[in-house]
Amino acid sequence: MKKAPTHRLADRVLWALGRSSQHAQRLVRQHMTQAGVRTQHYHVLASLADDGEAAQATLADRIGFDRSDLVTLLDELEELKFLARRVDPADRRRKIVAITPAGEKQLDAMDQLIYAAEADLLEPLTAAERKTLLALLSRLSAD
After folding, report:
1. What is the predicted pLDDT for the residue at 141?
2. Strands 91-99 and 83-88
3. In this protein, which residues make up the domain named HTH marR-type (predicted)?
């Protein structure tokens, strides 16, 4: 019987972390899609909630989105009443973006989707293993 092929890096931590990360992202997208929400909206709302209001360009840089793509997302979120834009009094050409109470509520709901995706990902691990994994990954983080 022929052995299933394995990747040449299958025994390397970087390979395993990358594969786990891809799987985690896939689970998050799946939960978000099933709930009818967009992961890009989550990034915008979470940044506004966690880091505060910001000029559109600053927000784009903060979350690593192309500035022109961000405008489309902001239009969608503003239409849904999840954020508000106002003119910057210091520079009338700039718009300041802030999350609204409805946006905070939506962000909380999206957090729950992420928690569900995490539960799916970590299902094979015991509570102690989950705690150890988080501690180890935290030590490896560049933050």
Report:
1. 86
2. antiparallel
3. 10-142
